[in-house]
C-alpha cells in the first residue's frame, strides 16, 4: 500500500530530535550503533569522509573493534582499547 499524504514534522518534535555539536571532521567519528546484542554494528565517519560499517572483530587500520554498546565503540590493539563515543553524548 502506498502512502500519498505527507505531513510536516512538528517543530517541537524536530527540536527534541536534533542535537547540535561540534565535531572534528579530521578524526574518526562514531555516527551510531545498531543491531542486536549478539551482533552489534556501528557506523563510523572516517577522517577522509567515507562512512564505514563495522562489527565486532573487524579491523580499521591497525585497530580492531573490541566492543560495541549503545553509544560507544572500543577500538584498540594488542588487547588495549580506547572507547570512542558519539559526539554530544
Query: CATH architecture of the domain at 29-84, please?
Result: Roll
Percent helix among the residues? Answer: under 10%
- Spatially, the strands of the biggest sheet line up as 4-5-6-7
Shape descriptor reads elongated
Provide a count of the helices: 1
Q: What fraction strand?
A: 35-45%
**Name of the CATH first level of the domain at 29-84:** Mainly Beta
Query: Ends: how far apart?
Result: 38 Å
Rg over CA atoms, rounded to whole Å, is: 16 Å
Low-pLDDT residue spans: none
Instruction: Write down the secondary-structure element order.
Output: HEEEEEEE
User: CATH topology of the domain at 29-84, which one?
Assistant: SH3 type barrels
Detailed description of the structure:
The N and C termini lie far apart (38 Å). By secondary structure, the protein is mainly beta. It is elongated, with a radius of gyration of 16 Å. The protein has one helix spanning 11-17; strands at residues 29-35, 40-45, 51-55, 59-60, 63-68, 72-77, 80-85. Strand 4 and strand 5 form a beta hairpin. The strands form two sheets. Strands 4-5-6-7 form a four-stranded antiparallel beta sheet, with no helix packed on it. A three-stranded antiparallel beta sheet has the order 1-2-3, with no helix packed on it. The mean pLDDT is 87. The protein has a domain at 29-84: SH3 type barrels (Roll).
